[in-house]
From TrEMBL:
Organism: Microbulbifer thermotolerans
InterPro entries, per the entry: DNA-bd_HTH_TetR-type_CS (IPR023772), Homeodomain-like_sf (IPR009057), HTH-type_TetR-like_transc_reg (IPR050109), HTH_TetR (IPR001647), Tet_transcr_reg_TetR-rel_C_sf (IPR036271), Tscrpt_reg_MAATS_C (IPR013572)
Keyword tags: DNA-binding, Repressor, Transcription, Transcription regulation
Alphabetized PROSITE patterns for the sequence: HTH_TETR_1, HTH_TETR_2
Protein name from the UniProt record: TetR family transcriptional regulator
DNA-binding region, residues: 33-52
PANTHER family the record matches: HTH-TYPE TRANSCRIPTIONAL REGULATOR ACRR, HTH-TYPE TRANSCRIPTIONAL REGULATOR RUTR
Keyword Transcription attributed: yes
Length: 218
């Protein structure tokens, strides 16, 4: 009996989260009430409070169903990085694009977070998670690019301080733009071309070369 009650409670929680995704995706995070979510889930408002403290807590739980881009990049192991840093950078972003392309729930949640999430109390915890992930992701990307330069996978004169935010911002921007216009094509296919084009840019762009230091003569 206790096991059955636990299963019922878990099922109710998942129904609430499913309903929240649909409501937040249609109307944003601020405007909808918990009553709207409860009605769509087929539960009472009190049932929501039985699982979540408030709307902010519900929203935070909802985002636990996905992995943000920078979190995926920070997963790689150190020994894997040292063997093939550029390959690690490429493969992590390709896997992210592939996951988003085939997972409709990820698409909806990421679209809510990036495009329908007003910066208010309800989104404060998520915004903090994004900011922390962003800082860690940029630092990990800098580490990967630096390691790739040291291993000869990228030009020795690459301006890493310029290349890092450019590559990071471009890849995150590709994902955010696709979420707005998924009809442009398969993100798994497009993503591979985008990643390879950006890596080619690191190799070839004169604007990403460090200026040669002038020799001082006495």
């Amino acid at each position: 009996m206790a096991k059955r009650r636990k299963e019922d409670a878990l099922e109710t929680r998942e129904r609430i989260l499913d309903a929240a995704i649909e409501v937040f995706h249609k109307r944003g995070v601020v405007r909808p009430s918990l009553t709207e979510i409860a009605q769509l889930a087929g539960v009472t408002r009190g049932a929501i409070y039985g699982h979540f403290r408030n709307k902010a807590d519900l929203f935070a739980a909802l985002t636990e169903r996905v992995q943000f881009p920078d979190e995926r990049l920070c997963e790689c192991a150190c020994d894997e990085i040292m063997k093939d840093p550029l390959g690690v950078l490429r493969s992590r972003w390709l896997r992210m694009f592939q996951e988003v392309a085939r997972n409709r729930e990820w698409q909806l949640i990421l679209e809510i977070v990036f495009h329908r999430c007003e910066l208010v109390t309800e989104s404060g915890e998520i915004h903090q998670r994004l900011m922390e992930g962003h800082a860690q992701g940029v630092e990990r990307m800098r580490f990967l690019i630096t390691a790739a330069v040291q291993r000869g996978q990228l030009p020795a004169d690459l301006a890493i301080e310029v290349a890092t935010p450019l590559l990071h911002g471009s890849l995150v921007g590709v994902l955010q733009d696709w979420l707005l216009q998924p009809q442009i094509g398969d993100l798994a296919v497009l993503g591979e071309r985008y990643v390879d084009a950006l890596i080619d840019m690191l190799h070839a762009s004169p604007a990403l070369r460090r200026p040669m230091q002038l020799q001082m003569t006495c």
